[in-house]
Design brief:
The protein is mainly β and 309 residues long. The protein has no helices and 21 strands.
Length: 309
């Protein structure tokens, strides 16, 4: 009886994908750029995101990329919060992009291929890029495409970070037959942080007044949306401190994101009548935005005066 030996050849892929993850703290408004490499052959490469864990194929010639998609917190998006770019052009959709990698050595980065993340102060989210890619060697051999995922986790800043003050404007408003000035500004807090403020109201004369710091219900042009009071400013010899938690909104009319607070700060003096009608009435309010350590980040100064009659 004849004896036969059967040899079964198992297909062995010449390269394997590697896990690709990035973690960034949202301590400022910044654009982060990461280089993309082919094969990870060096121990520490914080600035290069490699596609492959290993490679045993022929001499590399082309990197082919297609079916690029983006997600933010699990939802497919088309904006540019975290993108794959080649030659400054965002890669997206099913289109095929072929990149010459013949000159890229192990541990090196691919020229003109980058990951770009636009990170805002205080944000916390998860961003994912998914695409298919394959390596072609100089003999034209190309294997089945691999699907890979690159994740970016944007986390809360672990160090003390100051609130960011923007959109500083002024406007006039009617105040008891007088025109007074309102101050508008936007305060962007670290995710989960509170708004820390203090004020000092210096009274010079008699008379009543109305002084408030108010939160705008939703984003828009200053003064056009409803506001709700978060601080009522009374007469004071020294500073009075206030802490406001934007995560628990003052009114259900408020809309997210909660860490962005649109403020209106104003002071109105009332005209005096009767025996005090001839007396002047004036107030000076210093309203400060603080960080969590109590350092003053921004000051609004309100000065209003009313003559007697």
């Amino acid at each position: 009886m004849a004896t036969f030996t059967n040899k079964i050849n198992k297909y062995v892929r010449s390269y394997t994908d590697t896990i690709k993850g990035i973690v960034e703290e949202s301590c400022s408004v910044v654009t982060k750029t990461y280089q993309v490499g082919v094969v990870d052959t060096i121990p520490v490469t914080p600035s290069i995101i490699f596609l492959l864990k290993d490679y045993i194929g022929g001499t590399k010639k082309w990197l082919h990329i297609k079916n690029v998609s983006y997600k933010l917190n699990g939802v497919t998006v088309t904006n540019g919060v975290f993108t794959l770019k080649y030659n400054s052009i965002v890669l997206a959709g099913p289109s095929l992009t072929s990149i010459d990698i013949s000159g890229v050595s192990g541990g090196g980065s691919i020229p003109l291929l980058q990951l770009v993340a636009d990170i805002s102060y205080g944000e916390v989210n998860s961003r994912v890029i998914t695409f298919d890619y394959a390596i072609e060697d100089t003999l034209g051999n190309i294997e089945q495409y691999l699907t890979t995922t690159i994740s970016l986790a944007t986390i809360q800043c672990t160090t003390l970070s100051n609130p960011v003050i923007t959109n500083i404007t002024t406007n006039t408003h009617d105040c008891g037959s007088f025109i007074a000035t309102s101050h508008f500004l936007t305060v962007t807090l670290a995710e989960g942080d509170k708004l820390y403020t203090r004020y000092k109201n210096t009274v010079r004369g008699l008379g009543t007044f109305a002084g408030y710091a108010m939160r705008q219900a939703s984003p828009g042009v200053a003064g056009t949306n409803p506001y709700t009071v978060i601080t009522s400013m009374v007469a004071s010899d020294g500073y009075k401190f206030n802490t406001y938690n934007p995560i628990v909104p003052f009114s259900s009319a408020h809309t997210p994101p909660w860490n962005i607070v649109h403020l209106r700060i104003y002071l109105c003096l009332n005209r005096m009548y009767g025996d005090n009608a001839s007396l002047a009435n004036s107030h000076t309010v210093e309203f400060d935005i603080l960080n969590s350590a109590g350092t003053v980040i921004h000051t609004v100064t309100l000065i209003e005066s009313r003559p007697g009659i």
